[in-house]
Amino acid sequence: MKAEYYIEKLNLLAHPEGGYYAENYRSEESIEKSALPNYYASARTFGTSIYFLLTPNSVSNFHRLNSDEIWHFHDGGAARIHMLSPEGKLVSKTIGKDLEKGESFQVVIPKHHWFAAEIIQGDFILVGCTVSPGFEFEDFELADRSTLASAYPDHKTLIERFTKA
Q1: Domain-by-domain residue ranges, the chain?
Q2: Where is the DUF985 domain (predicted)?
């Protein structure tokens, strides 16, 4: 299979962070705002899921969410996910199918961590991304290069690779 096949068959659209996506699940039930931590501006569904596809020409730029996100490998090569904790610790994990090379079928990105991703093997990677409580764009923050580099000067080179000028 090729990236173009999945983009067409799954009706994937360009994502603001880079790559392509389509929401494929949104819980019908929700959690009231009063039952959620204060960093949520409104009620949230129990969970959401999307298909997300990256190619060598499309990276996922640094962004963060208010909820944990789990990436699930579906098809293609491998991708490296770079995560910066609020304290500035950098952790990089590889999602893919080659367990002998240390790749994982799933990677968990904790809430409030800045993260970015890139293809490191193959022509594309197709993953599923599950968010709980469910994703809303009001929780999505795309990194500003200068602000993030000022907050994490030890990781300036990586930040410059995965932010827009």
Answers
A1: 3-27+45-140
A2: 5-143
pLDDT, tens only, 15-37: 888 899 999 999 999 999 999 99
CB 44 within 8 A of CB 36: yes
Q: Give me the DSSP letters along 40-73.
A: -SS-EES-EEEEEEEBTTB-EEEEE-SSEEEEEE
User: Element (H or E) spanning 157, and its range?
Assistant: helix 156-161
Q: What superfamily would CATH give domain 3-27+45-140?
A: Jelly Rolls (2.60.120.10)
Read off φ and ψ for residue 161, nearest 5 degrees.
-70, -30
Q: Are 55 and 64 in contact (CB under 8 A)?
A: no
**What is the rounded radius of gyration, in angstroms, for the C-alpha atoms of the chain?**
16
Task: Please determine, for residue 1, whether its predicted confidence score (pLDDT) is greater than 80.
Answer: no
Average pLDDT over residues 138-151: 96
